[in-house]
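User: Predict the structure for this protein chain, please.
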Amino acid sequence: MILSFILFVFLFLGGIWLMGLAQSLEDFQAIVFIAGLLIMCLSLAFMMRQGGSATRRSNSWSGKAAE
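Assistant: Here is the predicted structure, written as structure tokens:
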């Protein structure tokens, strides 16, 4: 869990840094900006796929009413 969060933060901040770096480049601004945007999206998707325990149920998608 901690390692996945560290990876998320590294990717997320790296994507923000790439998008900021694109503003100061003279060539390939669009490519670097899009790469930063894709890395940020990848980091968010990585964190959203992580299983959470907010419901405290073993099978949240069973379709049965909460007990």
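The two ends are 28 Å apart (CA to CA).
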